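Hi R.,

Here's the chain you asked about this morning:
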Amino acid sequence: MSDLTGLSLAEARAGLLSRQFSARELAQAHIAAMERARPLNAFITETPERALAMADAADGRLKCGAALPLDGIPLAVKDLFCTAGVLTTAASHILDGFAPPYESTVTARLWSAGAVMLGKTNLDEFAMGSSNTTSHYGPVENPWRRPGDNRPLVPGGSSGGSAAALAAHAALGAIGTDTGGSIRQPASFCGIVGLKPSWGRCSRWGVVAYASSLDCPGPMARTVCDAALLLQVMAGHDPRDSTSAPLPVPDYAGALVGDVRGLKVGIPREYRAPGMPAEIEALWRRGAEWLRDAGATPIEISLPMTKYALPAYYIIAPAEASSNLARYDGVKYGLRVPGDSLDDMYERTRGEGFGAEVKRRVLIGTYVLSAGYYDAYYLKAQKVRNLIAQDFAAAFANVDCLLTPTAPSAAFAIGEHADDPISMYLNDVFTIPANLAGLPAISVPAGLSADGLPLGLQIIGRAFDEATVLRVGAALERAAEFRHRASFLTA
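And the predicted structure, written out as tokens:
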């Protein structure tokens, strides 16, 4: 085959099984693509030698007919997953030099299934951001550009490095984490598929924590089928993670065979945000028509507590972050800045090691957890979170899934909202409710903006019903026929 990097994951798997090309050839093609994509700054750490060694092992299994589910498939890993012996930074200066002695459960399952690690991708520092511009290693550039405008665009965040690598064909699949939209929003901005599973479906063991009750590892891919194949391996109970759900894992790829006839699709009226661009509204209506044409029934519903999701999230997530990030003190691992006393060393290490956005969120979180403010802010936000979950439960008594936009805009220029954190936080307005309720959701590329940039549509499902989310996402994918390629590939 002339362009191994242009294959889908499923196509590459079929080609490897039929011996049309070797896993080493596939790895070499993606290593070269990763090198070409360096101007995008999508990777923090490249691991080409490890990739070739893993590919050779896959070729050995393929040759003797003992192929594993993902044998020889080159993947990119968000640098929030601990990888044994490989630098793991969370894109933060405070984790300089940290090479964990253990492997996260999700990555261990991928390697056990034969997948090949290309490297660790860039992200917003500690996954705090919606633009992938807060990384200690510099911003990631979106492989897309507006026609006639060469200003670099953000890839979305925090899993922007994984999204950019996929859109630039520098990996066949990738993994990210989603705390408030960090898989789905970059998927929308980069024209790929991003799936946030239910909270508890994929183990968080070995994933650097941001907000533990919200963080969800999940797959990113160029097709819905590819996302299903990755989730099949990633999902499942893990006794090392006490929040991991002890539930059987369905056949996700098998679920794509079914159609959507007879399904009821909720259209939440509250997702018509004030000031939302007309093209987002038009694409949303078109998505509902596509599903109607496929045999589903769109039904307008109400989620009245949705308007409180964003403020509730930006109390709960920073509060959990302020607790989780207390472990970074310069004592056991990572950066250490000497001081005159233990407290001084703590202060100097954290002052130099954390970036501005991380400091902002830690301070917010510490404030809302402090004496006198806990009840007024944090406890109240948790009550609102419960009401949001009740809204979804009431909706799912009448519908099978929900259809919404993924993001309120297409990708914007790097630095465009740098001085306005509130504007940046609003990028997650459509994705955060699913995180607060622990529900699965997928973003599927569905069209282009007037500026020629990708726009996504989101499907939200019942808890642990990723199969329906994937099935409806596949129906959207077929109808949208999104075949556009990033400008980086055509330049």
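The CA atoms of residues 448 and 454 lie 5 Å apart.

Let me know if you need anything else.
M.
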